[in-house]
Amino acid sequence: MIHANHNPTPASDLLRPKQAAAYLNMHRVTLHNLSERDSTFPRKIKAGQRLCYYRKSELEAWLQSREV
After folding, report:
1. What pTM does this model have?
2. Cα of 66 vs its chain's centroid, Å
3. How far is CA 46 from the centre of its chain?
4. Mean pLDDT of residues grouped by 10 in the chain (68 residues)?
5. Which H or E run contains 19?
6. Nearest to 21 by CA among 33, 12, 31
7. What's the CA gap between 12 and 15, in Å, rounded?
8. Which residues pair with 52 in a beta bridge?
């Protein structure tokens, strides 16, 4: 049963790894390495065995936190 007050993440905020890497202007391998090694990097959302997403809003916040 879905509750009326449930606010799921809008689909427009979810990026596949290829899209997330393009958004951050980096290679997918770099994205993967960051997600595995940098504890400040946003965690991926596992939607299935081989399906994951990143929240664009979390990637934006991460980028802002790295500004000098």
Report:
1. 0.79
2. 16
3. 10
4. 54 92 96 95 94 96 90
5. helix 17-24
6. 31
7. 8
8. 46
